[in-house]
Amino acid sequence: MDYQPLRTGSVNNSNSTTLTAGRRQSIPFDFKRFIAVVLADWYWVLLSVLIALTIAFLYIQVTRPVYAIKSALVVNEDENSNSDILDKLNLVKKTPVNFFNEMNAIHSEDLVAQTVDSLNLNVTYFVKGKLHDNELYKESPIRVVFDSAGYKGDHTELAVKYTSDGHFDLRENDHTVDVTNDTWVTKPYGRFKILYAYDPTTPNKYLMNEITVK
Known about the structure:
The protein is an alpha+beta fold and 214 residues long. 32% of the residues lie in helices and 21% in strands.
């Protein structure tokens, strides 16, 4: 008579399989119970929503908006054409260069700097707000325009305040001078003038504010 040990492992495996199968059964979502729990603690839910909305509102008010600008230049390369891209844009003299050289020229630092200066992209306007300075993206009543040499400084901050018809107070480092509209002002960082950005007879809510130019 042979002795056969009890196979406890097979019994345990069978039980574990039964338990695992039982755990895999999906429990349906009890919507009524969920509503009852929410209604029982409705004041905590309402308080959480109000706190979240308050934080979101303050974040929007404090955070300065950032505008992304993208552009595309479509070029049809013609082997029989002697004109190049930059010549069509009137940026450089007409020279026989190939398509890849023109792409490198478009990405050059000198051309980018020339574009930034010509479009005044390096000049921004701000007014003081309740929580932070607000940028006047297209609502600035004035424009600071540099001459063809462009801006030559690193970082300059000016304060412009409208005083009377065609006159502004220009403040820089606690030094204030009277500047007339459309009159050249010479500084170490360049030559510029202050212009109206719109018809002076048209009301503008920011004209009487001190505008910070950066």
